[in-house]
Amino acid sequence: MKNSRLDRLRRIRVSLPGRTEEKPAAARTEALDFKSAEDMPYAVRLAASWAWRFLIIVAALGVLVWALSKVSLLVIPVLVAALLSGLLSPVVNALNRKLAVPRGLAVGITLIGFLVLVIAGLSLAGQRLSAGFTALWSQALFGIQQVQDWLFNGPLKLTNDDLQGVLDDALVQLRGNATSILSEAISWTSFIGQFLTGTLLALFVLIFLLLDGRKIGLFLVNLLPRRARPAMDGALTRGWASLVSYVRVQMLVAFIDAIGIGLGAFFLGVPLAMPLGVLVFLGSFIPVVGALITGALAVLLALVANGWVNALIMLAVVLIVQQAESNILQPLIMGKAVSLHPLAVVLAVAGGTMLAGIPGALFAVPMLAVLNSVAKYLSGRAWETDEFVLQHYGIQTSPPGTTTGPPQPSPATPSDPEPHTSPENRQPEKTADED
């Protein structure tokens, strides 16, 4: 028995684990050296990356808005001149190219015609306004008499002593606020002076934008590095085209609003129908809000002059015109011209109003349209296939599938022309058409 057990034990092979070499302490420490950023979840790291970039963008925009608010007397006239230049530049180009009128003379003819048209329209509207207010004054006096009869003979049963007490309280309040009233009057005087100065400055800037708009654009582009010039020149050209389209479409929309509300007021017998149409036309340049405010003014005039039934009909006319603008004109015309959603337009107007008041509401949508066009152009690398850029810069695009950076301009660039180049590769200051 013992021998058989010993034989079985000898047949069992016991294999002990081999001795493993221990790694040095430095190697173990290096293997366990985790980076602190990798310890955080991916969602937290992504949110932090977006957060600090977003904060930098907001801070930069805040500094830009603050700096522009300090020089608003310069910024607002320049923006007004840019809008008017987008409206009048097609007329100048038509006179210069199609009728062979010298560009300086074409600018003068266009500006004089525009000023004559504006002054004639305002003077005619002013005459109708003064005549209408003369007729309204008698109606206003009659309305005041009715209010007095209601106060004395109505449910309130007021007496002369009560009215005298109200007048005395009003005089006391007026005397107590004399300083604030005087400061408001001085501020209005300063505002009128700033308005006249801004008007002259806007006219001066408009002349040079119509005369040398392309040269001014090239001057700004040539301040950039050479590799960035083709892309930025194409982007600015696309943004300017978007601004021109916006001004044309907004002019058409404002004209349709003015015709609709003005004709409605005329047929309903509302006084000041023509001046009201002019106000609607001017107010419609502030999208959504302007036409709404001027339409409310039309309803108020109808209520004062013709009663509440006429005012309700005028309200219906205003709502129909507004719905036609919002559901037909804005999506079909404005949407195709500047590629902006109506919600973006409303938010831009609201944000511009909160930041800069009426000027912010006026310039928010065109600035958003320009920024939208520039951003789409740059993000889509559209300068690689843009005929304008290819013609003026001779871009040599990279082969498909390569990522070697932005395309390189040819040696004949606007800032480094060669004396013996072919006509198509000359500097754009010589060959580029004036916009």
From TrEMBL:
The chain crosses the membrane at residues 50-68, 74-92, 104-125, 191-211, 252-270, 276-300, 307-324, 344-371. Belongs to the autoinducer-2 exporter (AI-2E) (TC 2.A.86) family. It is found in: Cell membrane. Residues 394-435 are annotated as: Disordered. Residues 406-416 have a biased composition (Pro residues). The lineage of its organism: Bacteria, Bacillati, Actinomycetota, Actinomycetes, Micrococcales. PANTHER family: PERMEASE PERM-RELATED, TRANSMEMBRANE PROTEIN. Its main location: membrane. Pfam families: AI-2E_transport. This is AI-2E family transporter. It comes from Glutamicibacter ectropisis. It is a multi-pass membrane protein. Residues 417-435 have a biased composition (Basic and acidic residues).
